[in-house]
Amino acid sequence: MALAGVWLLALWLTDPGQDGARQPADGGQPAADQAAAVMKPEPEPEPEPAKRTIVDFRMLDLDSGWFRYEDGVVMVTGDGGVTWREAGPDWTMPTEEDAPDGLPAEGGAGADGSDGTGREAGTSGEEVEDRTVEAAPDGQAAFRTALREIEAAYLDFDPSLPIVIDGRRIAAKRVQPLSGRIGWALADEGEGLDRPLLVSVDGGHTWHQEITAEVRAAIEAERERRRLRAEEAALYDVPQDVMKPGPGWILLPNETYPGDVILVRRGEPGEVEWQGKTYTLRPYKAGYFTYLPIPRSTKPGVYTIGDAELTVKAKTFDTQYLTVTEEMEAMRRNTERIAEDQKKIDEARSHSAATFLFDSPFLKPIEGRLSTPYGYTRYINGKLSSTHNAIDLAAPQGTPIAATNDGVVALADDLYLTGLTIYIDHGMGLFSQYAHLSELHVSTGDTVKKGDIIGLVGSTGFSTGPHLHFTFWAHNTPVNPDLFFGTTPFRW
Ligand SMILES: [Zn+2]
């Protein structure tokens, strides 16, 4: 009897068509017909199955779950309900310890002290970890707790919505919101449904009796969204504080200084009007992002970015007095040559990868003595010259220079003022710049990994001695390189 039950259920829960076309519930072929998959013979009429009441079920994740007949026979699935088979003799009812990856299924099976069986019609939020979560970095337990909180935040499922099948409202024994928009329900046996185990892939608005190709596609899409959320979560110190779904704005950090840069994150697309420019948020993992440079000229105060507040604090920049030869000073007056170079630089910085190209902290390109900090106001031969929007690291001629992080060489060229110069695109409008080199070891267009030797320290261009002039540019505004060393914008 049990075997017949297995087979009949497999018939009505299985989508036999590779192309998504389904056969009627009373169709299908005996499993013994080995040619069935290839030949697709006409369905033979099946004897009317004796109806067996399903008394309970539980999905453990997007793939695995079980249901139980009133006679105690348990059926299990490992493919999201596409096929079911009778549980083997060694099968035991999963408890919270048995949840995938050894995770306590918070709010899930057994969380109420029961063994997960025979619960009444439930509408409690039940969130169970998916097997697809990537290997976590250090601090696995904390990371998994964070992921669980994030998944709960993204659970867009309303178990109180009415279940309607064929225009008829259906009473349910149990509703189980599972993940995102995916949920399962068991119709009351009094409703007389041939297929009482129902699935919704739109947050409980519509319900399906069959795992159709569309349903499977929606479940796969949810699996992909969960993967992206897990990957994004690994980027942050406290991911659950950052990864809010929806329109809320997150500023990393929300206190900053003139000359710095912040990272803006939102759960939806958006734009920021900031200091006379428009910045468009770009999709990455589960969110939308933009760098927001804080120009040196920004007045201290509290600014509104979306629904968030950004505090810009006051900062004093020191002054540096530099004496150079008359010949060097004259270099700065060659405006034609300088403008020519600027065209090249503008062109190189006008294309940036539409994604973050790095996945680990930035490193200092050389260990050198800091000879000029970031942001100094510079006087050359007694005349106000410019703001030094970079750091100068003094080091012996020929010191190898490492790429600060992964990226693509946007420009490697001999420029008039900055000498042999490299710009590396790190994606999303962020570039690192290396100037006054004695040798270039990369070419425009090269892909570089963090730590690759891209050139050697020198004193080419407008320079008084061997050093590396190093900075970052965010959307064509120079920004404080000290913010990046040993960390990433996701951890600001
Ligand atoms: Zn410099």
Named once each, the bound ligands are: zinc ion
The helix tally amounts to 7
The share of residues in helices is 10-25%
Largest sheet: 10 strands, antiparallel
Low-confidence stretches: 1-37, 99-136
**Class based on secondary structure composition and strand pairing:** alpha+beta
| Strand runs, count | 31
* Binned strand content: 25-35%
| Outline type | elongated
- This entry's quaternary arrangement is single chain
Radius of gyration, in Å, reads 31 Å
Whole-number average pLDDT? 85
Written description of the protein model:
This protein is an alpha+beta fold and 492 residues long. The chain has 3 domains: 2-233, no CATH class; 249-312, no CATH class; 319-491, Glucose Permease (Domain IIA), CATH 2.70.70. The protein has 7 helices and 31 strands. Strands 20, 23, 24, 25, 26, 27, 28, 29, 30 and 31 form a 10-stranded antiparallel β-sheet that branches. Strand 2 (65-69) and strand 3 form a beta hairpin. Helix 3 packs across helix 4. Bound molecules: zinc ion.
Secondary-structure topology with pairs:
Elements (H helix, E strand, L loop, with lengths): L1 H12 L22 H4 L14 E6 L5 E5 L4 E4 L7 E2 L53 H14 L9 E3 L2 E3 L1 E8 L2 E6 L9 E4 L12 H21 L5 H4 L6 E4 L2 E2 L4 E6 L4 E4 L2 E4 L1 E3 L2 E7 L7 E5 L2 E5 L6 E4 L3 H6 L3 H15 L19 E4 L3 E5 L2 E6 L2 E4 L5 E3 L4 E9 L3 E9 L2 E11 L6 E2 L4 E5 L9 E8 L2 E3 L13
Parallel strand pairs: 11-18, 19-21
Antiparallel strand pairs: 1-2, 2-3, 3-4, 5-6, 7-8, 8-9, 10-12, 12-16, 13-14, 15-16, 17-18, 20-23, 21-22, 23-30, 24-29, 25-26, 25-28, 26-27, 27-29, 27-30, 30-31
Helix pairs in contact: 3-4
Zinc ion (ZN) binds next to loops.
